[in-house]
Amino acid sequence: MQGRVPSRRIGPGRLVATPIGVYVRYNPRMVQQRGIYHPNSPAPASQSSHVLLLLVMLLLATVPVIAVAEPSPPARASTVDVIATDTLYLRDCPSLTCRIAGNAALGTELEKTGEQANGFLPVCSFGTDGWAYELFLTHRSDRSLVRKGVPGCDRIALIFNAGIGKQPSESILAALAETQVPVTVFAMGWWAESYPDYLRRLDRDTRAVIGSHGDTQTFLTHAANAQVVAEVHNSATRIKSVLGYPVARYYTAYASDTDARVERIIAEEGYLPIGWTVSAGDYRSDNSAEEVRTKVLD
Q1: How far apart are CA 209 and CA 183, in angstroms?
Q2: Residue 43 above 80 pLDDT?
């Protein structure tokens, strides 16, 4: 069998593609040499059979293959991670007064199941549904220091940072013990070890919650990531050695030297970064008691 292309000759055994098809010139000797026919094989079929076989193979090669698209996998549920605390409670309604339905540890991935309400986010943790306080979830793009509480509560949070290096104030300790005003004292690790009796009296005689002010007087924005982590954990270790129980997971940076990187590291280590809106300035030697009072109350 032989096909012809105008003004072109097709040599024996060649396949030539043209705009209207494929032409084949059969050469039995070439076919045998290429292994299609072997002496130990049955006698070769006629030339027409060989050509027909080649044409069928060529036609099959040109049949379009219809690809059936597989269905796309379902979209992954939106998730958030637990940060800034060692244990996050899941409540059965969006309020701190609601019953605790379960809890999730630091770093746990939670499935977001709805929109936030009253500062809480509906989530699911290993089959347990509940409302998680949004402050301790990573989906917040504006992660920053906690400087204010819930608007409208008409309260102030009184805090003390301990670790600047001066002798602890006995008058402050006496006033806190007498008034039983709730406060948070952020202690440095080195300070806790240097004044263990004072820290124990704060814990025993007042309503102070003891948080962390870092371990040493280190400017965290100039510290490497590993050094920031060390400040967090070394402080916790020293304070626990004095009090006998873990420090509350609140953290203030030395000299308020912090930024987004530092706050992210602190939160990832399970501590809530804390700031303040009013500085008493009592650490300055040129400030009188009246000036400190005016700054805080006015």
Answers
A1: 6
A2: no
| Maximum distance among all Cα pairs of the chain, rounded to whole angstroms | 118
Q: Is the pTM of this model over 0.85?
A: no
Is the separation of the CB atoms in 187 and 199 below 8 Å? yes
Residue 59 corresponds to which tokens in the numbers above? 């036609």
> Which position has the token pair 């290429």?
34
In SS3 terms, the chain reads as CECCECCECCCCCCEEEECCEEEEECCHHHHHHCCCCCCCCCCCCCHHHHHHHHHHHHHHHHCCCCCCCCCCCCCCCCEEEECCCCEEEEECCCCCCCCEEEEEECCCEEEECCCCECCEEEEEECCEEEEEEHHHECCCCCCCCECCCCCCCCCCCEEEEECCCCCCCHHHHHHHHHHCCCEEEEECHHHHHHCHHHHHHHHHHCCEEEEECCCCCCCHHHCCHHHHHHHHHHHHHHHHHHHCCCCCCEECCHHHCCCHHHHHHHHHCCCEEECCCCCCCCCCCCCCHHHHHHHHHC
Task: Output the pLDDT for position 146.
Answer: 84
Choose among 119, 89, 84: nearest CA to 251.
84
How many Cα atoms occupy the beta-carbon half-sphere of 130 within 13 Å? 22
Q: How confident is the model at residue 24 (pLDDT cuts 50, 70, 90)?
A: very low
pLDDT above 50: residue 160: yes
What value does the mean pLDDT take over residues 268-296?
88
